[in-house]
Amino acid sequence: MSKNKKYWKNLAELNSDNNDVFDKLQNKEFVEEIPVDEFLSDKDNLTDSSTSRRDFLKYIGFSTAAATLAACEGPVVKSIPYVVQPKEIIPGVANYYATTIGNGYDFANILIKNREGRPIKVEKNKLAPDSMAANARVHASILDLYDNARLAQPTKTNMPISWFGFEYETKAKLDEISRTSKEIVLLTQTLASPSTLKLIRDFKAKYNNVKHVIYDAISESKALDAFESRYGTRGLANYDFSNSELIVSVGADFLGDWQGGGFDCSYAKGRIPDNGKMSRHIQFESNMTLSGANADHRVPLKLNEQKLVLLEIYKSLLGSNNINIKSDISISDKINKIVKQTIAEIKSSKQGAVIISGIKDEKYQSLVLEINEKIKSKSFLPHQIIFKRNGKDEDVTSLIKTMSRGNVGAIIMSGVNPGYTLSSSKEFLDALEKVDLSICFSTKSDETASKTNYVAASNHYLESWGDYELTHNEYSLTQPVIKTLFDTKQFEELLLKWTDNKSNLHDYIKSNWIQNILNNASWKKALHDGIFVKKSSKLSKNRIISRASNFIHSNQTFKIVNHDENKYELNLYPKTGMGDGQHANNPWLQEFPDPLTRATWDNYLTISEYDAKELGLFLEPSTFFNQSSNDANGGLNGKYAKINLGNKTIMAPVIIQPGQARGTVGLAFGYGRTKGVKNEMMTGVNAYHLYSDFNPVQHVEIISTDEIHEFACIQLQNTLMGRGDIIKETSLDVFNKESVEVWNSQAVVSLNHIETPVSSPDVDLWQEFDRSIGHHFNLSIDLNACTGCGACVIACHAENNVPVVGKSEIRKSRDMHWLRIDRYYSSEDSFYQDDQKKDNISGLGSSLSSFGELENPSENPQVAFQPIMCQHCNHAPCETVCPVAATSHGRQGQNHMAYNRCVGTRYCANNCPYKVRRFNWFLYNGNDEFDYHMNNDLGRMVINPDVTVRSRGVMEKCSFCIQNTQAVILKAKLEGRQVAKGEFNDTCACASACSSGAMRFGDINEEGSEIAKLKDNKRAYHLLDAVGTKPNVVYQVKVRNTKNKV
Amino acid sequence: MDQKELRRQFSLFKSSRLSNLKTKIFGPLLLALFFTSTITIFAQDGDPFAGKALFNTNCASCHKLDRKMTGPALRNVETRLLEDEGLDREWLYAWIRNSSALIKSGDAYANKIYEEYNKSAMTAYPQLTDSDLNNILAYTAQEKVVPVAVAAATQVSNVPSNDLGLSDQIILGVFAILFLLLSIGLVLVAKTLKNLAELKGVKIEEKKKGKPIWKAYLENQFLMLCTAVIFLLVSAYGFYGWTMQVGVNQGYMPVQPIHYSHKIHSGDNKIDCNYCHSSARVSKHSGIPSLNICMNCHKSIYEYNGETTEEYSKEFYDGEIKKLYKAVGWDDEAQEYTGVTYPVKWVRIHNLPDFAYFNHSQHVSVAGIDCQTCHGPVEEMEIMYQHSPLTMGWCINCHRETNVNIKDNEYYDRIHKELSKKYGVEELTAAQMGGLECGKCHY
Asked: Most buried of A382, B66, B156, B168 (most Cβ within 10 A)?
């Protein structure tokens, strides 16, 4: 039976009875004959072949073995020396060049550290005034140079074009347009550059109908208008707060970016209680700002109330004859009392007082100028005109109108990104299409550049020539410190081409300086110094004030209109890290924690707890049933709110900001970029959408939603819980009158029932060493001078190759910052009351309730900043627990960390009372999971070759920049001399970057050194001295100039 | 004809006067030789030996005898000028002492030469006296000497070193054969004795066969344990030793894109290390010299004239110099740079890991340590190799043993006094100075 059964595989087989082809195919694997026999029978050919089968196997075997062996060898490293080595470059030795940044928002005179021809760090230019020192963004700007999102060549309608073609075509078109009646518009950032402005004058002379519109993304136009109409020059008044006795700020965040910034240094100088005196600072504001956080007395107020406060001050000082106030609202009695007291203080301080305001209204800005003139304020310097902001709102608004009417023939943009920064960006981009020729100078293909005909790939400032007049008669120079990395040119070079000027930019600037600026002084010296101060007595304070035209001469009416009760007052502000948003692709700044909220990688709606509860935006700290404010791993959550302004709506996550005035919310500029930045950097929401009429205060509707946002916040504990010994502080009165023991007492422990100070060797676990020989480094941090600006954080990143870990890692508390600035809020009205409350706790019930309350910050808290890095304890707890002795102590006081020795047990981090050690959870360089600057060759050019790039699985921490202290010592040895006095001062990147002088570094064994004095200062204390770690970082007690006891 | 040979001729001549016998045979020949080489000398009344020295110090950087360089070739310059241009020695004096004045005066040939050599004015030598110039001219007037094959001699001298290695092996082989023969002999003797004994009827006591030793050994657990422990320890030691050499590249001798001989430069010509590796004095890197440093000398040194071997012949070395010219873009014929360069990709030999910081200037300038201390006998290295292991143990050993060089260095004044007092020693080692602290090299 079975024999008859036939299984067939296909139809052919079924009918295969007389199918030869099928049989043939079935029996043969290959359809065609394989010529094996033919091949083997060809004996001649086989014998002639030099490779036998055996040889073939031998070769295979050998190459496999060779490959295996070769894999055991280390990689071959190539070294390629110069063909002709430039004289000034010695491999391994840094060069420094003075230059100036002026990107329209930040202006600073700096030194650039160059290694083997690549700029790696921004340093302080000691020849320049403090007001031109670098802030956090300027320190981070060096990384923008190595941004791989930069445009590599000019483009025409998104296709690459040569510079020759670019110049030829644009010039022809400009010539053509200039023959028509259409306008040619130059839309630029604030230039403040004598040579560029001269070039623009040349350009205007060559072409007809040229209009130069200056546009600041975040406008100071109203203050400029007020200054211009009063003193005749478009600029801003300078202020020197170092000699102020009383600073009254009405809505001005002058420690931030108010009127161009740069006031924090002089402020910090006046805050150090020398001879029992320091300035007093009263702040009226709605958002919690850096200035408010540093104020002695902070009053949260809405804008209308701020206006009334300013008017009250004006009335009481200059009389009410000149002004008419028509107000729908009045200030409460409580506020009124404070204002009365403030006015009394202004009157008693006389010339020592100064009033400033951030109200974006020409009339109020004029009031401020007039008040300061009237009280003859010492700090008010209208003759030192600041040119860091120069935009005019009306010009920009009318430009968009002209453009949309089709009357603009050509628009040339440089240093601006109106497609992103205008609230009417859509109208602008639509109108742009009606312009015949649009050219954008940009380093990125950003929101504006991607919509223009021609994009001129422009230089980074470190590749450019330039000059600036930042304040009247103070000139700065920009020089290239590296050859252009890409095929880029700067705006000024093209202006030269367009005006048929054959000279190059360097020669143009030089001849302009020699003719108009230098007054026979040396060009080379000016270039070397980076700064040149022109001696001129034309403009003195008295002269400019005597010439001032009185704005408020007749009855001026000040109308204060009440707004819809249901609407919230939205205050738009620039964040310390992101500024106006042009550094959005900079991972250092994205990961820079905001000084106040301590959140990274985000902007958010700041709101008071009260309003959040009203609106249903508040998340309880811990609930079983609802979403809580913190995840199990501590990550902070916030609800999304819908913000409606007219027909515009944006969604922003909400963060509770203690100190936010009730009825107000805040939102930071600079986020929500959509073009020209990496996906990871497209964080936050674009607040410029709500920046209608260049007014940062808008009245918006806020609606709660159920969506939850995950924040990456690096500090989750907001209060000190009454632990006053962490940030010791006192009031000026107590500081002056009481003994040190009262306000800066040392911790004591009980030894045989006798209270013994912890510094005594009798209560020490460790053996003491003699530390008087050689160098011994200490770092002093003055809590009075520290404004929390964060320049040190970025400087530390740049110096020490600190990796960027990204938002999700930060949320898991895996941040790598070697230096953090802790921010604490008081739970009661002041930290002193916190301490009192904690001391009064008795019994279980009271402790449970009180400690619970102490966790919550007050509605208008006192704020304190405390920079914390490795404390370099002489008796370091981390060293004793390391099983492999990877961390050990040097004779010079530094706590060393040998990365190659570390096996990653993390005992040290557990045993560190200051929590300053950072663990590398991953390999952060060359890892696609962390696609930041360390993941591409261009970004890695910023790496400091003197500091190891750490790998996965090792601990790292602040080293007191040992690479720099060693370099100073070696320099002295090479020159055969002692280390000079104060030579160590700038070796620590943080101390060197600290323009306010809060951080001082040095050798305490150096006789008469500043640091030795600071260490023994009566304000000096060690953090957690009760632990007995004997740190080499010393803090100076914070003294507040408050009238009440703190 | 060089100095040595002339001297030999003179001495031969002297001795020939003493020995009549010799004169008879060699006299005419020697005389002929003498005249050919000395007629010119006497005619110019200059000393070619002194002339050569002067030529090398003053002229050699721009002139060769038989080759155009920055300036023209100078062999027989005087005769050439006299015959071709009709210019006498006075003209040459004027030219050498102040060529630019001669050019300015409108002298036709002076201007021609000036134009021909890219208007590069010759350095003026007003300090050279007439006799100096005569000496130099005497030197330039000498006939070209074809170098005798020195190569053969050096080759021979190189052979014995190879022989030594070979003889060791032969001796060992001979010993091995002897040992083998001896053992065979012994076995044979034993066998014969046994046979003899059997023949003589001597009864050899048969040993009672016990357990074989290997079996006993296997059964003895204690011994087995001991063996296992020893085996493990030995293999662990071996493994440890093997791992410790991972990443240690002592003796690393890669093939370089240009065969640069440190032996010729540093050994034969005694060029100071710091001449090329100048940044070693001021920087953490010793620096691989840029090619323009090479051209300081190689602009005029276009060929190799030193000792050669079969492997490294003159042609070989000249070829390497050609490689340099190609890399730096030097057209040797036209004596100018073409501007086309091919940077040399050297293979780096001494590679410290990134986590170790080492600074050359600290060791070279401050401590005054010889380069050879770490880099070995570089002046004898035909091919550069890594002499030292560059391990941390090696660094530390030296820090422990070496005293700090405090001489004439004010930096150490205070710290050395205080520290040496503390440690109770006269002189501090680098280790006592803090040279063992982790953070001094790892950060």
From this structure: A382
